[in-house]
C-alpha cells in the first residue's frame, strides 16, 4: 500500500552524511517510545547520524528500551535541540498526527526547513513531505515494522529492535486486547518472534514492575475516587495533585488505570481526570464503536482514536469533572444521531 512512498523515503535516506531528528508526541507512551527506539537503532545500524528529542521526558518505565536514555529533552537541553533542528535534513514525526502534539518544541519544528516523514495511526494527519498514516493498524510500531522491512529488509531487525517494536504493539493494544483484530498484527508479531523478539522480557519490563506506592495509588482511585454517572454508562476517576504526591507518583504510575472500569459490564465509557501543575488532563476509553475522540475534541481540546482519546483543560479539577457530567447527555445524543 505504501510501496511508492517507502521507495521515495529509501532514496532520500540513501544520501550520504544525513542528519536526522526523531520526535515522539508529548507525554510519550509505549508506542511513541518503542517506535523511536526501534527507528534510532536501525539508523545506527545503517550509519545514519540521528538524535531523538522530546518536548518533555520519557517516563522511567520505558528507559529499558535501547537508545531511549540517550534522548535529549527540550526542558533541559534547549540549545542542543534547536541546533539539531537547524542542522537536520530529515525529521521523523512518530506516533502523532500533528506538530501541535509536540508541546514546547512546536514553534521550532514549524520553522524546520528540511523534509518531514510522518509514521502514525491517528486520524486527521497534517500535510508533511512523506506521510505514512493508517488508522487501521494497531500501532505506529506495527506500521514502522513495514517501513523498516520495506527500506532495509526485515533481517536488519535484531532482538533489541524487535523488543522495541513489540513494546509499542503491546502497549497500544492493552496487551492485544483492543485494536488488535487484524491478522496482519499477528503476522508482524510472528515475524518479530522469528527475528529474535524476547516477548517474556518485554512483558516483564512493561507489566511486572509495580511499586507498592503505585499499587496503593491504583487501589485508592478504585476504592475512593471512582464514581458511576447516574444517568449514563460512564465511569469517572478524578485524581488530585495532592493524591499523586501522597502516593509518590512517578510518570507511568497511572498507565492502564482508566481501562479498569470498562471491565464492569454496563460501563461503556471510562474517563480519568487528572490534575497537573498547569492544567487538567483527561483520558477517555470506550467499548465497541463508541467514538470518545468525538467527545474529547468537541469539549476538551483533544482528540485521538475511537476507543482511546485524551484532552486537556485550563480549569480547576472539579469544574472539569462537572463539565464531563454536563456534556454526557450531548455525547450520548450524538451516538443516537449517528446510529
Ligand atoms: P491517553 O489517555 O493515553 O493520554 O491518550 C489516549 C490517546 O488520546 C492518545 O494516544 C492520543 O491519540 C490521544 N490524545 C491524548 N491527549 C490528547 C490531546 O491533548 N490532544 C489530542 N488531539 N489527542 C490526545
Ligand atoms: Mn500509538
TrEMBL record:
Pfam families documented for this protein: DHH (PF01368), DHHA1 (PF02272)
InterPro entries tied to this protein: DDH_dom, DHH_sf, DHHA1_dom, Oligoribo/pAp-PDE_c-di-AMP_PDE
Highest taxon in the source lineage: Bacteria
Listed name of the protein: DHH family phosphoesterase
DDH domain segment(s): 19-169
Organism per entry: Butyricimonas hominis
SUPFAM superfamilies cross-referenced by the UniProt entry: DHH phosphoesterases
Domain DHHA1: 247-325
Amino acid at each position: 500500500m505504501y510501496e511508492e512512498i517507502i521507495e521515495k523515503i529509501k532514496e532520500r535516506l540513501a544520501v550520504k552524511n544525513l542528519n536526522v531528528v526523531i520526535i515522539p508526541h508529548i507525554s510519550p507512551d509505549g508506542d511513541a517510545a518503542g517506535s523511536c527506539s526501534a527507528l534510532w537503532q536501525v539508523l545506527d545500524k545503517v550509519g545514519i547520524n540521528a538524535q531523538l528529542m522530546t518536548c518533555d521526558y520519557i517516563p522511567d518505565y520505558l528507559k529499558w528500551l535501547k537508545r531511549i536514555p540517550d534522548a535529549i529533552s527540550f526542558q533541559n537541553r534547549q540549545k542542543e535541540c534547536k541546533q539539531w533542528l537547524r542542522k537536520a535534513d530529515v525529521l521523523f514525526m512518530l506516533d502523532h498526527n500533528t506538530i501541535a502534539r509536540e508541546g514546547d518544541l512546536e514553534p521550532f519544528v514549524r520553522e524546520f526547513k528540511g523534509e518531514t516523514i510522518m509514521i502514525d495511526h491517528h486520524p486527521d494527519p497534517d500535510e508533511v513531505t512523506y506521510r505514512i498514516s493508517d488508522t487501521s493498524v494497531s500501532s505506529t510500531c506495527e506500521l514502522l515494522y513495514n517501513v523498516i522491512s520495506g527500506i532495509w529488509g526485515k533481517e536488519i531487525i535484531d532482538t533489541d529492535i524487535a523488543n522495541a517494536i513489540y513494546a509499542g504493539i503491546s502497549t497500544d493494544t492493552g496487551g492485544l486486547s483492543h485494536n488488535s483484530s487484524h491478522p496482519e498484527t499477528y503476522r508482524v508479531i510472528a515475524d518479530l518472534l522469528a527475528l529474535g523478539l524476547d516477548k517474556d522480557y518485554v512483558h516483564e519490563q512493561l507489566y511486572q514492575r509495580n511499586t507498592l506506592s503505585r499499587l496503593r495509588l491504583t487501589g485508592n482511585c478504585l476504592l475512593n475516587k471512582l464514581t458511576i454517572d447516574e444517568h449514563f454508562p460512564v465511569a469517572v476517576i478524578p485524581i488530585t495533585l495532592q493524591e499523586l504526591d501522597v502516593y509518590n507518583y512517578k510518570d507511568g504510575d497511572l498507565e492502564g488505570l482508566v481501562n479498569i472500569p470498562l471491565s464492569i459490564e454496563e460501563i461503556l465509557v471510562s474517563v480519568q481526570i487528572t490534575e497537573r501543575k498547569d492544567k487538567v488532563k483527561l483520558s477517555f476509553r470506550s467499548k465497541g464503536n463508541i467514538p470518545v475522540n468525538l467527545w474529547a475534541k468537541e469539549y476538551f481540546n483533544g482528540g485521538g482514536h475511537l476507543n482511546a482519546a485524551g484532552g486537556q483543560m485550563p480549569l480547576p479539577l472539579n469544574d472539569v469533572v462537572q463539565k464531563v457530567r454536563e456534556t454526557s447527555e450531548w455525547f450520548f445524543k450524538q451516538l443516537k444521531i449517528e446510529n
